[in-house]
Structure formats: C-alpha cells, structure tokens
Amino acid sequence: VQLQASGGGLVQAGGSLRLSCTVSGFESDYYAIGWFRQAPGKEREFVAAISWSGGSTAYADSVKGRSTISRDNAKNAVYLQMNSLKAEDTAVYYCAAVKSPFVVRGDILYEHWGQGTLVTVSS
Q1: Residue by residue, what is the 3-state secondary structure of 88-104?
Q2: Other CB atoms within 10 A of residue 89 CB
C-alpha cells in the first residue's frame, strides 16, 4: 500500500491550500483516510478524517470551520482544503489509511502512512 501526499507549500496567513492524498495497492474494498500533522518540536496530532463513502467526516477543533475533507474513490484520492490558514497550521501533513468503512480519529489505529507534505504559513 502506498499513500502519496502532495500540495503543501509556503502560503501567507489567511491564504488557502489544497492537500491531496492518492492511495494505491489497497487490497481492501473500503478504507478510511485521515490527515494528521506534526509541527517542529510537537507531537503528531489529528486534523481530519473521512469515511469510505465520504458521508462521515471529523475535524480537530483547531481546523473546524476552516477545512474541508473530501474524497473521490474513482480516483483513489482524498483532499484536504484548508482556508484562512494561520501560522500555527505550519507543520508536516501526513495522510494515513486504515481498513474501515467508518471515520477513524486515532492515529494508532491507522495501518498505512504517506511520506508527508510540508505546509508553511508565514505571518
């Protein structure tokens, strides 16, 4: 199983970015996807997650109202649209997959991880 995260970059505070995660090699018919981030010197934290159908989503309080997670199963892709970015959103963002039709929040439950994409928000 391979996950490829992309879309990170340098953006000014208040700007927007759209992160993408493509999944390949997943043998299960269904999987949930989560986005996590890790800032320098901090522990990895949950950002957002989406169920297999896309009908259920979950967000961390820190990004709720500013971010939208979505997926296109025909393209094996999941997206994280982030708006009104703040300096505290600066981190490496990782996507992860787990065999489950439901939303999964806990990082320890995820089985497969991508390599991460760096988001830097300048204030």
Answers
A1: HHCEEEEEEEECCCCCC
A2: 22
Beta strand 9-12 with 117-122 is parallel
Is residue 6 within 8 A of residue 116, CB to CB? The reply is no
Cα angle at 2 between 39 and 32, to 5 degrees? 75
Total count of residues recorded for the chain: 123
* Strands 32-38 and 45-50, sheet pairing: antiparallel
Q: Each residue's pLDDT tens digit in the chain (123 positions)?
A: 899 999 999 999 999 999 999 999 887 679 999 999 999 999 999 999 999 999 999 999 999 999 999 999 999 999 999 999 999 999 999 999 999 999 999 999 999 999 999 999 998
